[in-house]
Amino acid sequence: MRSQENSRDNLPDLSGRTALVTGAGRGIGRAAALMLGQCGARVVVTARTQSEIEAVAAEIRQAGGEALAAVADIGEPNAVYALFDQAGVVDILVNNAGIIGPISPVADADPSEWMGGIRINLDGVFLACRLALPGMLERGWGRIVNVSSGAARGHTAAWSAYSAAKAGVEALTTVLGIELAGTGVRANAVRPGVVDTEMQVEIRGAPEQRFGSANLDRFRGYKERGVLRPPEEPARLILWLLSPEADQLNGEVLAIDDPEVSARIGLTPRSR
Ligand code: NAP
Fold it and tell me: Cis before residue 102, ω within 30 degrees of 0?
């Protein structure tokens, strides 16, 4: 049965649906892909590193689910077209792939690296939506979840490319919410909080002369104090957006650090 609650672990029943998760080789994307598999969806697991996506797909299959591992660089349009050809029908799209770099003040930034960040974190999200939407609209059902960041507010020096891209992802999501009204297709975004993944390892290891000692102390402090969220927490928020309870939401940006949002998915608020 589709779109009902899965009584076992309060996750939605997504059997019969195909979900494509970008950046699913590790971190938040991996956790979301595994949960989607548990919910009965066929999962297209994609990222650039073949060994990681194959391991995730194998884990989904071992748990009795169905999965396809497909290598693609979301920042390369031809690769994204080929990915969607390979995936076939896509009912659920989780735009999760992202990079933090280049970590650099604007005055110092390498223009091609900066534009490369936008290509992955924003253009890739647009193109995946562009390729998924016609089929979703034709079938009258579809769900898009875009993974944003609190950095969309632009409050951290040296993160201009990342912050600009995430602000763009949130604006794109808001526009989609308007365009998709009444179609049965929904697009929402999540801010996952500060999560214990490779991305945080890279942030803590950024060169001090570029990122600044205050920023380094802040992020190293989160790790030392044990306040990073496990990737399963934002994955639960992503899955909640696919449940009937979230059916009325469209064009919204939900921050896991908002106590109302974390309470909705059964998490106790976490302070940093
Ligand atoms: P992560 O552990 O570094 O995982 C990122 C995933 O994205 C990997 O599977 C990576 O695989 C993939 N990826 C990166 N560039 C790609 C590209 N060009 N094409 C396809 N796949 C690509 O990071 P994470 O923390 O789980 O981040 C997931 C999302 O959450 C990102 O959008 C990030 O901005 C967002 N987020 C994270 C945090 C946090 O604290 N961790 C906070 C707020 C928002 P390959 O390198 O193999 O391609």
Answer: yes
Cα 135 to chain centroid, rounded? 21
Burial of 122 per CB tally in 10 Å (0-12, 13-18, 19+)? buried
Question: Is this prediction's pTM over 0.85?
Answer: yes
- Spacing, Cα 1 to ligand 1 middle (Å): 32
Task: Clarify whether 222 is annotated catalytic.
Answer: no
Residue nearest to atom 29 of ligand 1 (CA): 96
**Ligand 1 environment, Cβ below 6 A:** 22-23, 25-29, 47-49, 52, 73-75, 96-99, 120, 147, 149, 192, 194-195, 197-200
Task: Please name the residue that has the structure tokens 């650099």.
Answer: 104
Give the integer Cα–Cα distance in Å for 200 and 204.
Answer: 6
**Whole-number Å distance between alpha carbons of 52 and 202:** 18
Q: Tell me the fold of 12-257.
A: Rossmann fold (3.40.50)
Taking the centre of ligand 1 as the mean of its atom positions, its distance from the CA of residue 82, in whole angstroms, is 20
Give me the residue spans of the domains in the chain.
Answer: 12-257
Render pLDDT for 131-154 as a digit per residue (tens, 0 to 9): 999 999 999 999 999 999 999 999
Cα separation, 133 vs 150, in Å, equals 26
